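Supplementary Text 2. Reproducibility record for the structural model of the 123-residue chain.

All settings were left at their defaults, and a single model was retained for analysis rather than an ensemble. We include the record here because the model underlies the residue-level annotations in Supplementary Table 4.
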Amino acid sequence: MSRAGLGDSTNCSLRRATLLATYHRLMISRADVEHVAALARLGLTDAELDRMVVELNRILEAIAVLQEVDTSSVGPTAQVIPLENVMREDVTRDGIDREAALANAPLREGPHLRVPVVLEEGR
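Retained model, structure tokens:
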């Protein structure tokens, strides 16, 4: 291996260590997880909190590794695959008749569907 190859490898390792150190400072603490869980009104046990801290920090470590990828030759994209309209033509057709629509209704009142009272207003 040439000296240039060694230099590149060392430079890459140094960049990775710097990125990991940066992300290490930004790692998610147990207090952060507790705060977000409280905001989301999640009742997490101590074991779940500990597991979430580990899992979220692993995600941040993976992102730190992805930061190393050289994307200078990749243009900005909003979609990875081309968009394609897959909707069918809008064709009118006859609807279902009232009796067929109400055939399986649990409560009927004449030609209408009856539902249980939801709001007490207007009773």
